[in-house]
């Protein structure tokens, strides 16, 4: 009410918002999320860590649909890092079963929503049962033209960059690329995110304030939003809160406003 009165009397025209206070014309194109805090969520409840991972898995649909509802074009979710293999075998094995479980339940909804599923990460390093289901989901949705749900599975940004550097070296050695032609675009198009816009907004749950080897190159000008909420407690409303915060930021990209 107060907001509306203020708007009526303000000389500045205010952008129209939807029912969540989000300005539809200024929705970020690409949002990336570090879904962190499953283990601590479980510990707080006296449950095993894997119970936290299952609860976390059950949040992925809610947030994916929320992103699609407000018109986000790309949603990248960090599901498993190249460093997460350091965890106990039982935990890793459990995590590697979750894509199958999740896709068996949710793939039809994503297809009905015209979503395209992509995987970034080293699929060669995944157990074959995991690789099979994620490749099948990519195959079945590759012609879809709606939101891209980009899942980072066995993903590590440094290895991604190392692989790009190796490709460039090889292209130079074999005469396909000159040293002078190596520029930002030459690197970007050799990353796993090739063809996707850089993330506009990166969300990390659970109170940790670091990137943990996620999208290092791509997040050069990304806006960061951190919350103490553990991923299994992260809701649609928290997600919209992050989007509103993003819409209140002034991005300058090194220039002046
Ligand atoms: C995120 O939750 C899920 C993965 C890294 C696979 P964590 O398992 O890291 O949870 P915390 O950080 O131990 O609470
Ligand atoms: C990052 O979280 C990876 C995922 C959320 C998949 P971690 O829990 O592995 O990160 P660190 O170890 O706390 O930096
Ligand atoms: Mg963690």
Structure in words:
- The protein has 257 residues and is of the alpha/beta class.
- It has a single domain (27-156, 198-247), classed as Decaprenyl diphosphate synthase-like (Undecaprenyl pyrophosphate synthetase).
- It has helices at 2-9, 38-44, 49-69, 89-112, 128-141, 157-173, 184-188, 236-247; strands at residues 30-34, 74-81, 116-120, 148-155, 201-204, 223-226.
- It has a six-stranded parallel beta sheet, with helices on both faces.
- Helix 3 (49-69) packs parallel to helix 4 and helix 4 packs parallel to helix 5.
- The radius of gyration is 20 Å and the shape is globular.
- The mean pLDDT is 96.
- Bound molecules: 3-methylbut-3-enyl trihydrogen diphosphate (IPE) (2 copies) and magnesium ion.
- The site of one 3-methylbut-3-enyl trihydrogen diphosphate has 11 residues, from strand 2.
- Its EC number is 2.5.1.-.
- The active site is at residues 36, 84.
- Substrate binds at residues 37-41, 49, 53, 81-83, 85, 87, 204, 210-212.
- It is an enzyme of class 2 (transferase).
């Amino acid at each position: 009410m107060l907001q509306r009165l203020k708007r009526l009397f303000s000389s500045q025209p205010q952008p129209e918002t939807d029912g969540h206070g989000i300005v539809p014309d200024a929705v970020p194109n690409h949002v990336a999320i570090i879904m962190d805090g499953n283990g601590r969520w479980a510990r707080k409840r006296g449950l095993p860590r894997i119970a936290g991972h299952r609860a976390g898995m059950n949040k992925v649909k809610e947030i994916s649909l929320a992103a699609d509802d407000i018109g986000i074009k790309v949603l990248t979710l960090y599901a498993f890092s190249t460093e997460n293999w350091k965890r106990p075998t039982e935990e890793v094995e459990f995590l590697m079963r979750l894509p199958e479980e999740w896709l068996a339940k949710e793939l039809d909804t994503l297809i009905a929503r015209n979503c395209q599923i992509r995987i970034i990460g080293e699929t060669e390093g995944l157990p074959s049962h995991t690789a099979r289901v994620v490749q099948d989901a990519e195959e079945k949705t590759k012609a879809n033209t709606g939101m891209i749900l980009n899942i980072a599975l066995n993903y590590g940004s440094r290895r991604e960059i190392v692989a790009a550097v190796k490709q460039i070296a090889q292209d130079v050695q074999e005469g396909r690329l000159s040293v002078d032609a190596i520029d930002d675009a030459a690197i970007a198009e050799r990353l796993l995110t090739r063809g996707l816009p850089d993330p506009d907004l990166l969300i990390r749950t659970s109170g940790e304030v670091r990137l943990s080897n996620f999208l290092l190159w791509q997040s050069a000008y990304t806006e960061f939003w951190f919350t103490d909420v553990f991923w299994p407690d992260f809701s649609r409303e928290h997600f919209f809160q992050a989007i509103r915060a993003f819409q209140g930021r002034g991005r300058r990209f090194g220039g002046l406003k």
